[in-house]
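FAQ: What does the model actually see?

It sees only this:
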Amino acid sequence: MSLLIDRVDAHRVEREVVRESLRLQAAADPVTLEEFGYLLGQANGLSYKTKAGPTVGVNRALGISAWYSGVRWLSETVAGLPWHHYMRSADGRELRAPQAWLAHPDVDQTWYGLVEASMMAILHRGDAFMYKLRNASGQVVGLREIHPDRVTGGIAPDGSKRFMIDRDEVEYTTREVLHIPGLSYCGRMGLNPMRHFAETLGGIAAADDYSSRWFNASTHIGGIISVPGPANEVVTGAARAEWDQFHQ
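And it is asked to produce this:
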């Protein structure tokens, strides 16, 4: 009898431990990983949950053929525009010889690739950032693109721009970072297109998802299937298989 009581108590304690473990787990993880990823992206301006359902970010937007074609056309067109160099003079400006480093502003990076990357950043994040490479004399001899998701910053109280890369505590100014804003209210920091076009893109993404599911099932018909007489698993299974075979 004593042994039986000990076993019952042991099982009771084990159940209490499991309950407490589940309670602590629920308290420590109140959202799913998917929800956490959405919240993290929403806070950083990387993706946005839309009323239509889909969460829209850069990758989802590029999956929409019209958006992909548009940003590709703009990026490649601007990157392929001819460019010339001028310097200020007493008469206004005069043409100057191009600097050699502009043909290859960074290791294995062409001017075309740099401008294309900058356009993609502006079209998806509203801002493009490049780090200025300087020689020992302090002259700019190159540009290195910085992914806009790595940069945080804004306008300091004195009106100057301040940037942090990868959330480092070091602040950079426009001496170190070339910043090109896109469409802007203030002319200093660009507007995030993903935020402003989220609902439109979400509606298109939802329509694409719906059509994909519709074509996958070949139809979307609601109704009731009735059979004469009593129905068992064999009868209902045969009716369901016939329906699926006919409509898919």
